[in-house]
Design a protein that fits this description.
Number of helices: 5
Order of helices and strands: EHEEEHHEHEHE
Shape: globular
Largest sheet: 5 strands, parallel
Mean pLDDT: 78
Number of strands: 7
Oligomer: single chain
Helix content: 25-40%
Strand content: 15-25%
Distance between the termini: 25 Å
Radius of gyration: 18 Å
């Protein structure tokens, strides 16, 4: 796991530059204590209701891994309690054997175009040509590297160190025949859909 400092790290993704803030409440300073969804229940109406946001990460492609991770990082930078629930193919983002080798494909992507020719769409069917997924993935990784966007694992490290909460979906976990040792170590627990409904009570929920 990437070594992370105690100071919250907020990568610049093109917005207004911000100074690094003090660690978000709950930021990790050592092994994270196990938490359960009930620990994040919405306060009663007579108490303050701090803002909370929950992302459902359901896609395992390289391009679809980043929306939830970048938004979660931004939410933590604003001091918002942040959770990510990895389900179905999104589980690949937190599975050790897949998380460092996510792919990008042109198949089914009718919006695909080259950065140097945005008005010239690329035929999605080209993705079926042998080797094209490898080429497209390499191109996207280079673009991310050129912009100094952290890799998926490093993004997860940053989110965890900044106090974010990572959860696995029990159904997807069972469907893939996984064990806890197969998962990225920052995943707090594998929970059911009912557990997720409980922890997301009163939260803004974003499905990716």
């Amino acid at each position: 796991m990437t070594e992370i400092s105690d100071t919250t790290i907020i990568p610049d993704f093109g917005g207004t530059p911000r100074a690094a803030s003090a660690p978000t409440a709950g930021a990790a300073s050592g092994p994270k204590a196990k938490a359960r969804p009930a620990d994040f229940a919405t306060p009663s109406s007579g108490e303050d209701r701090p803002r909370k946001i929950c992302f459902i990460a359901s896609k395992g492609n390289l391009d679809m891994a980043y929306p939830a991770l970048i938004q979660a990082n931004a939410a933590l930078g604003e001091g918002i309690e942040t959770h990510i629930f990895f389900t179905f193919w999104g589980f690949d983002l937190v599975t050790e054997r897949t998380m460092d080798n996510l792919k990008f494909t042109m198949l089914g992507n009718t919006a695909m175009h080259l950065p140097m020719a945005p008005s010239m769409p690329v035929w999605a069917g080209m993705g079926a040509i042998p080797g094209m997924t490898k080429i497209a993935t390499a191109m996207m990784r280079k673009q991310l590297d050129d912009l100094e966007i952290p890799g998926v694992r490093e993004m997860l490290d940053i989110i965890e160190a900044s106090g974010g909460h990572l959860w696995g979906c029990k159904l997807s976990f069972d469907m893939n025949g996984l064990t806890l040792s197969d998962l990225y170590e920052g995943v707090e627990d594998v929970i059911s859909a009912t557990d997720f409904i409980e922890l997301s009570e009163g939260a803004q929920v974003i499905f990716v």
